[in-house]
Amino acid sequence: MNFRTQQAANKRKTIGLLMGMGVLVWLVVFAAMTYFGNSTAGIVPIAVGIALISVWGSYYGADKLVLTMTGAKLIQESDNPKLFNLVHEVTIASGLPMPKVAIVVDSAPNAFATGRNPEHALIAFTTGILETMDRDQLQGVIAHEMAHIENRDTLVSAVAATTAGAIAILSDMLTRMMWFGGGRDRDRNGGNPIALVFSLLILILAPLAAMLLRSAISRKRESLADATAVAFTRNPAGLRSALEVLAADSTVVHQKSTSVAHIWIESPLDGKSVSKLFSTHPPIAERIAVLKAMESLN
């Protein structure tokens, strides 16, 4: 499978997963109205509003917020001319504006990209990755991060986070209503007991389903970024070799909270103890295998 086929497949899957989140929102609203009646309709915009404020505020200031959370420091070209040279090369190949560049003082090899659009993009590298990787490997990493910018992955993540957040808030509010009087209205109004039990199950399980869908979207965006990186460099071996270095290294970045784990090229939380269903990244061995398949086509 070549990189164009990979790109198209991952874009289709992302759209399908986002549509799945939309269906999940509809199911939660339907379950709420079935269980509590039409009086709950006004809660929906409240839940969506809370999610929008919390997530999109972070989205708008993503570059500044992530700098603070990871401890990354912006650098100038004079601080590391070789690194800037590589970033310039990939920038020209991608047709994107030159991003800001930052360094995280951390011995674990890793990197990330963020920013609400290409004009406000930022790429950061740990000191460990700069010391560990050669030129071709580092070029592959830069291309992967530039691919996240090209594919508007900060925006996609914000949409997924908003939807998942709205579902979680809505389910929480409705569950509280259930315990504090919602059941009395239901008993007065009557209703199909099977439909009521089904609705209750939806309200309880919807936040978990939303989390699974959000993780699946993140995994597809990582796979898409790998394929897009190859489109930029036409050199799958560089990124494949970089991922092999990351796979062989056991160190983990210090800043590994769930808030920023998904932005790193290798998630610090996706260890063997984490279920694949909840992982924000595909297994690194799978990513390497896909890139090797692309190499064989060349």
Automatic annotation (TrEMBL):
<feature type="transmembrane region" description="Helical">
    <location>
        <begin position="15"/>
        <end position="36"/>
    </location>
</feature>
<keyword id="KW-0862">Zinc</keyword>
<feature type="domain" description="Peptidase M48">
    <location>
        <begin position="79"/>
        <end position="294"/>
    </location>
</feature>
<feature type="transmembrane region" description="Helical">
    <location>
        <begin position="42"/>
        <end position="62"/>
    </location>
</feature>
<keyword id="KW-0482">Metalloprotease</keyword>
<feature type="transmembrane region" description="Helical">
    <location>
        <begin position="194"/>
        <end position="213"/>
    </location>
</feature>
<keyword id="KW-0645">Protease</keyword>
<comment type="similarity">
    <text>Belongs to the peptidase M48B family.</text>
</comment>
<dbReference type="GO" id="GO:0006508">
    <property type="term" value="P:proteolysis"/>
</dbReference>
<feature type="transmembrane region" description="Helical">
    <location>
        <begin position="155"/>
        <end position="174"/>
    </location>
</feature>
<keyword id="KW-0479">Metal-binding</keyword>
<keyword id="KW-0378">Hydrolase</keyword>
<dbReference type="InterPro" id="IPR050083">
    <property type="entry name" value="HtpX_protease"/>
</dbReference>
<dbReference type="GO" id="GO:0005886">
    <property type="term" value="C:plasma membrane"/>
</dbReference>
<dbReference type="InterPro" id="IPR022919">
    <property type="entry name" value="Pept_M48_protease_HtpX"/>
</dbReference>
<keyword id="KW-0472">Membrane</keyword>
<keyword id="KW-1003">Cell membrane</keyword>
<keyword id="KW-1133">Transmembrane helix</keyword>
<dbReference type="Pfam" id="PF01435">
    <property type="entry name" value="Peptidase_M48"/>
</dbReference>
<dbReference type="GO" id="GO:0004222">
    <property type="term" value="F:metalloendopeptidase activity"/>
</dbReference>
<keyword id="KW-0812">Transmembrane</keyword>
<dbReference type="GO" id="GO:0046872">
    <property type="term" value="F:metal ion binding"/>
</dbReference>
<dbReference type="InterPro" id="IPR001915">
    <property type="entry name" value="Peptidase_M48"/>
</dbReference>
<protein>
    <submittedName>
        <fullName>Unannotated protein</fullName>
    </submittedName>
</protein>
